[in-house]
Amino acid sequence: MYGKKVKLRAIFLLFSIVIVILAVFLVLKTLEEDVVYFISPTEIKNLPEINTKKIRIGGMVKKDSIKTTSDQINFIITDFKSEINVSFSGSVPNLFAEEKGVVAEGFLKDRNYFDATKILAKHDENYMPPEVKESLQAK
């Protein structure tokens, strides 16, 4: 039938394929816990139940909604259909502003309140850091 060399190659190939499949499965399973997609306020309103896992909420910062105190910033994220109140303690990115895109990472308290642990400001493709803009204008 088949020679000894062919059988050894087939076993080695089969063993290699199983190892690669197992490695890919383990990597994807490990990353599954860390992958956090952002959801909109409307999607939050439509959730069947509130979970306690860390999530990201994305949308626009509503105009005239930013309220700051000495240790906290409160604002509203909207997707122009629904809104959610966000509370954050810490420093916000330079791009954070009203009517700009934002992604807040943290924990949902209820369908109307979100406690953020991290704020990520979104920018468009035309964004240029202020330092680079200044250096280009100086030339």
Task: Give structural notes.
This protein is α+β, with helices and mostly antiparallel strands and 139 residues long. It folds into 2 domains: 1-35; 38-121, OB fold (Dihydrolipoamide Acetyltransferase, E2P), CATH 2.40.50.140. Helix content is 32%, strand content 30%. The chain is built from 3 helices and 7 strands. A 5-stranded mixed β-barrel has the order 2-4-5-7-6. The protein is elongated, with a radius of gyration of 24 Å. The chain starts with a helix and ends with a helix. The mean pLDDT is 85.
What keywords describe this structure?
3 helices; elongated; OB fold (Dihydrolipoamide Acetyltransferase, E2P); alpha+beta; 139 residues; single chain; 2 domains; five-stranded mixed barrel; 7 strands
SSE topology:
Blueprint: H1 4-34, E1 38-39, H2 41-45, E2 55-61, E3 67-68, E4 73-78, E5 83-88, E6 101-110, E7 113-121, H3 130-138
Parallel strand pairs: 1-2, 5-7
Antiparallel strand pairs: 2-4, 2-6, 3-4, 4-5, 6-7
